[in-house]
Each structure stands twice: as C-alpha cells, then as structure tokens.
Write a structure and sequence with these properties.
Structural class of chain A: alpha+beta
Number of helices of chain A: 11
Number of helices of chain B: 11
Largest interface: A-B, 44 and 50 residues
Helix content of chain B: 40-55%
Distance between the termini of chain B: 46 Å
Helix content of chain A: 40-55%
Shape of chain B: globular
CATH topology of one domain in chain A: Butyryl-CoA Dehydrogenase, subunit A, domain 3
Radius of gyration of chain A: 20 Å
Order of helices and strands of chain B: HHHHHEEEEEEEHHHHHH
Strand order of the largest sheet of chain A: 1-3-4-7
CATH architecture of one domain in chain A: Up-down Bundle
CATH architecture of the largest domain in chain B: Up-down Bundle
Structural class of chain B: alpha+beta
CATH superfamily of one domain in chain A: Butyryl-CoA Dehydrogenase, subunit A, domain 3
CATH topology of the largest domain in chain B: Butyryl-CoA Dehydrogenase, subunit A, domain 3
Shape of chain A: globular
Oligomer: heterodimer
Bound molecules: flavin-adenine dinucleotide
Distance between the termini of chain A: 10 Å
Number of domains of chain B: 3
Order of helices and strands of chain A: HHHHHHEEEEEEEHEEHHHH
Strand content of chain A: 5-15%
Largest sheet of chain B: 7 strands, mixed
CATH superfamily of the largest domain in chain B: Butyryl-CoA Dehydrogenase, subunit A, domain 3
Number of strands of chain B: 7
Radius of gyration of chain B: 21 Å
Largest sheet of chain A: 4 strands, mixed
Chain lengths: 352, 394
Amino acid sequence: MDFTFTEDQLAFKEAISRFLMTEAPPEMLRDIWETEDGRSPELRRKIAEQGLMALSVPEEQGGLGMDDIAWSLLTQELGYYAIPDSMADTAYVAAGLLRALPDGTTGREDMLTRVADGSIRIAISHSINPLVADVHLADKIIVEHQGAIHLVSREQAGYERNESIDSSRRLSKISVTPTADSQIAAADTGAAIWEQTLNRGALAVAGQSLGLAQRMLDLSVDYAVQRKQFGKPIGSFQAVKHKLADVVSGIEFAKPTLYRAAYALANNDARADLYVSHAKLASCEAAWVAARHGIQVHGAMGYTWEADLQMFMKRAWALNASWGTRDFHRQRIADDILADDAQIGPRYTFGE
Amino acid sequence: MKLTFNAADERFREDIASWLQAHLVGEFEHLKFRGGPGDEHMFPEERKRWEQELAAGGWVGIGWPEACGGRGASIEQQVIFAEEYARAGAPGRIGHIGEGLAGPTIIAFGTPEQKAKYLPGILNGTEFWCQGYSEPSAGSDLANVRTRAVRDPDSGRWRITGQKIWTSLAHESQWCFVLARTEPGSVAHRGLGFFLVRMAQPEITVRPIEQLTGTSEFNEVFFDDALAEDLVGEPGDGWRIAMTLLGFERGVSTLGQQMQFQNELDEIIRIARSNGAASDPAIRQRIAEAHTGLRLMRYNALRMLSGDERSGPDSSALVYKLHWASWHRNLGALAMDVLGPEAELLDGAPYELTRLQSLFLFTRSDTIYGGTNQIQRNIIAERGLGMPKEAKGR
Ligand SMILES: Cc1cc2nc3c(=O)[nH]c(=O)nc-3n(C[C@H](O)[C@H](O)[C@H](O)COP(=O)(O)OP(=O)(O)OC[C@H]3O[C@@H](n4cnc5c(N)ncnc54)[C@H](O)[C@@H]3O)c2cc1C
C-alpha cells in the first residue's frame, strides 16, 4: 500500500504548475475567452513545448508513456489554472482511447504522434454528454455510436455552437452520420474502450474539479486575510474560518479517491467503475462546497464579474454534470455494492 | 388561532384576481413572470409603467394606513394580494424599495411635511427608491459607514460626501435613502443620520457594477457634496431608523417573495416531471424537502406577522432571513441538478441566461445581501439567546 508519487511524476507536475502560473494568469484567460474561438494557439503551442501533450502517448509515438496516475496530478493543475477542455480531452482522454485501440487501427499511430507534438486537437463525442467540447477547432472527432468507434473530421460533422455558463467552454451539438467508412473499431472491441474512456473523462473532470476547488480555496483564504470588518480580518471570525476548514477537508478527502481511481484505470481493475465514481462524486462535491463557501466568504465582492472567483466557480458548476451526473455515478456505486455477488466486507476494503 | 379567510377576504381575493386578469394584458402581457430575482434589470421602463397601472388600481401600499394614502389592508388581505399577484405571474416590483422600505420608514419617523412630500410619489408609482447603506468598508459592519453629512450653517441644509456600493437599482431610482455620519469623529452606531437624497444632481455619480450574471442590477454611488433633501428624525437617530427599516425588510414584503419562490419551485417540478429527473430518488426527496421548507417559511412568516406573543420578542423574525436565504440557495442548486448536463447551456450569446440559470446564479447572493448567514446566526445567538458577543476589533 503506497499512495506516494514518483520523483518524476512530482517534478513534472511542479514544472507544469510553475509554467501555467506565469503563462495563464486570469487576466489572460479572460482575454482569450472573449475571443470568438476562445482558444489561444500560442498558449497551446507553449504547453505542448512543455511536454504536457505527450504525457501519455507511448514512447514509440514520441510520447512520455506515463499513465493515469501522472494525469491525476496534472488534471488538478489544469483545473487550478482553468485551462480549457480541449487540453485534457486531447492529451488525456483521446490519447488514452487511441492507445487502447489495436495497433494498426486507421489513424491510430499518426494521431498519437500528432497528439504528442501538439499539432492535433481531438474532440470526443460520447452519448453521456449531450454536447461536445471544442468541436469548432477540432481536427478530428471520435464518435461513439452503439459501442462502435467512429472517426470523422470537423468538416464531416455538422455542428451548432451553444454557449455555456462557463465562458471558457465552447460546446456544440453535432450531427454525424456514422458510416462503414467512418468506423475504426466495431462494437466488440469498441464497447470496452468506450467504458474506459467514460471513466477517463470522469476522472479528468474529477481532477480538474479538485484543482478548481483548491484555487477557490486559495482565493478565499487570501481574501479573508485581507478584508477587514469590525476592525479585524474577516478570517479571524470563527464562522469564516470554519467554512474554509470544511473546504480543505473536502479537498483532502477527495484526493486519495482520485488517486485510487487513477490506479484502477492504469491497471485495468475490473472494479474501475466503482472507484472512478467515488472520485467523481467526492471531487465534484469538494468543488461545489468550495464555490459555495468561497462566494460566501467574499461577500458581495464574490458576486461580481470582476472578482476572479466567478471564473473558477462557473467552471466547477459547468463540469459538475459532465461525464456523468451525480445521479449516474451514485447509481453505478449502488449497482456494484448492492449486487447479489457484491464484493463487500473487510476483505474488500482496498478491493485488491 | 384562525387559519381561514373570511367572506370579506374572499371578496378581496376576487377583486385583485379579476383586476390583474383585466390589466395584465396588452403592453404588460410580456412582463409576466419577468423582473424577479436575478431578472431585476429587465424591462425597467415597462415595469415602471406597470407600477403606475397598479397604482391607478389602488394596489400600491395597500398595507399602509389609510391616513397615509394606503388601504389599511389586514395581514390576511396582504397575504391574499401576494398570492394572487404571484399566481397571475405579475412582474417583479420595481417599486418594492419605496413601498416596502422607504415609505413605511417615512410613515414611522417622518414629519407631516415629509409624508406629504414623499408618500404620494410612491403611491402613484412614479417615484422609485434605492437603499444607500453599504460602503466599501461597511458591509456586515454597517455601523462603520464613513459617508459624511455636513450642515451648511447658512441654509441649514445637509450636504453629503462619500461612497456607497452595491446599491440596487440606483440607476432606476429618483431617490435614495442614505445612512451618513452627522457627527464628525463619531464611531459605530452613534452620530449617524438618515437622509433622503434626490439622485438627479451633478454631485452624484452612479456607476454600474457588473455581476457574475453578466448584468448590472447594483451600482457604486459617489456623493460629492450632494444636497440632501431631508433628514428623517434628528441627527444621531440614523442607526435606530436604519434598523427599524431592516425590520420592515423582514416583514410583509416577504410575502410576495414567498409566492415568487412557489412559482420557481413549480417550474422546477414541471421540468423534473418532463425530463425524467423526477424518477431519480435523490431528486424526488430534494423536491419534497424544498416543498416542506417553503411551507415552514410560509407558516413562520404568517405567525410572525400575526404577532404570536409567546414566540417571544420577534425571535420568529430573527430566524426568518437565515431560513429563506438558505432555502432559496438550495433551490437554485436543485434547479441545476434537475436540468442535469443541460444546466450549463445558455439561451444565447452573449451570456444570455435561461430563467433557471438566473435563479441559480442570483441565489448565490441570497445568503449575502440583507445580512449574511453568519451575521444572521450571530444575531440569533446574541440577541435571541442572549449569548456573549464575539470580540470585535474595536
Ligand atoms: C445582490 C446584492 C444586492 C445588494 N443590494 C444592496 C443595496 O441595495 N443597498 C445596500 O446598501 N447594500 C446592498 N447590498 C450589500 C449587502 O448588504 C452586503 O453585501 C452585505 O451586508 C455583506 O457585506 P459585504 O459584502 O461587504 O461582506 P463582508 O461584510 O465583507 O463579509 C464577508 C464575509 O465575512 C463574514 N463576516 C463578516 N463579519 C463577520 C462576523 N462578525 N462574524 C462572522 N462572519 C463575519 C460575512 O458573513 C461574509 O461571509 C447588496 C448585496 C448583494 C449581493
């Protein structure tokens, strides 16, 4: 039993964190989000230079060959800096899906190479999400259709943009007619890959939610220290302190569920669904509580457009129901533990 | 105890219901269900005309004493008015600060001249008010207001200098009631005055503040030697008057709000039934809880207004804001969960929120304005339970 990370994993996370701190400050994100496309090719290029896009691409395709465990740290950084969807979607979720395809599948090696060098954006359309993120700039869209995997270009997919409450999101409804030509894997191989992809998508959201929660907490602690009422910092009032203490409890308790789930995914654990749902629920709840207490601590200031808090709150709210609502994930847990042959009891505490 | 309405009340209900049916048409038709919480910036001009329509029908200030131009309506009738108003989907009241706060304060503390000067404009729906309490350094610590009022020795008139913030509807109002320091060097609750100030003067600047909804319902208001039209009460009475006013805020004016809440809950239930969310057991239970919470609120409000002696010196009033604010905040979250993954989708660009998104975002502020939840709990514990005060910095 060892919940620690390797030196390599931690060093990489540190480097990315320092990089994003200077390269993606809130003022800059606001400017980018105001543009029609909402994306900065410049920022994406720089992030690719840092090696983030290559993280889980196999070494044969020019990647670093790391797995879900490394991503469980990095998705938190993406969340902390509110980096838009297409980064995690392409570099983590899509790369994971491509890697799982049998060698030689149409486009597999080529796309993985391009993910690693940062020259491709891939959007993923799964029926659990009514809309697809970042179709408007996607070079390729991987589409789920009755368990089969289809690959289309943006030109082949009709799409209609729909704004989100979170200004960083660029969502579209797409209409794709799957054909024999667009299919790259039939349902017999595809279904299992899609299951894993759903889990990976949910885990990407869980990691980002925790990062967002941490950012909201940091902003709130800063504010509580600076803002004075009744002649003292509001952070000196117990009512305020206790709220933020609750936020940090939520975050810290959610983290190991995220790591546990990442480990399960990386090792093809048969109960990965269960662990991923734990992580998704705990992380989204932590972000939800961080937003609720964060705005409360900020008072009316937190209700303004100007205060950065809103950027992170809205992103957390928007991600909350993507890759499975709370209902969906609770249901999966219930299905597992209430089954006739459920693996419950002391022996299964760690599910090994 | 008597929990039914009498025949006269029922006739009153028919009156208001049929009046609304006859008048909420034509140019007002599209205002139905608009202008409520989170939507208060919408259709200001049309909603002002609607106030005049209401006024012409004699429906503004119905709870005010007859001597002041009201109808002296009983609590029962005010309840009925609020119910029917909401049932008809009549628009959010842009005149609520005048009718519910400024008016009753002037009635309670104003001189006969002040009543004659200010009440008619409120009653005929032509003059609108905003509340100038909060300042950058006086939020929860309202007694820390720094805005100064200085009396001109020659004219005897007061001039105001300072900054207010978060002033709702300042940009739509002719008048503002302003809490300002009359006694230089005074601190906390002492040395404050309650002023009535005309907004249209070059010495006042109103700057909108953008809210996280992307719209602006509140403002910064700068006073640079602005003329105060009147002082209510004496210099030094400001705090007492300001606090009495906050009592009005918790009173009858909340009846309409509850009916608005009922409309919102009904809408959420309608959606849950149509999109399948109502078959999720967790959602079902939360809807049942929301329904129960609203009932608690309603019964407590009615008990509070009927002045149940044994509930003690307004302890029912002390707990009221905390309850409704928390309830409404949860309702906003319920709305989002009922919508599921669609919840984040806007109506259109740029940043056009759906009705339930407005509700969700607006309800993030319910536990902040009008006294935060933390301040409410402090008041309940200190004033209601007589517990020792937490140490303050000054
Ligand atoms: C939508 C909206 C409309 C508004 N409209 C108006 C208006 O029309 N007119 C007007 O005058 N004002 C208005 N306000 C302002 C409102 O009254 C203030 O926001 C409120 O009083 C809180 O003050 P603050 O925002 O400065 O928060 P702060 O007082 O800075 O509070 C920040 C945090 O510290 C906590 N805190 C502060 N003191 C204590 C304590 N002693 N113990 C424990 N916790 C404490 C608070 O609970 C809060 O969580 C409006 C606000 C909003 C959000």
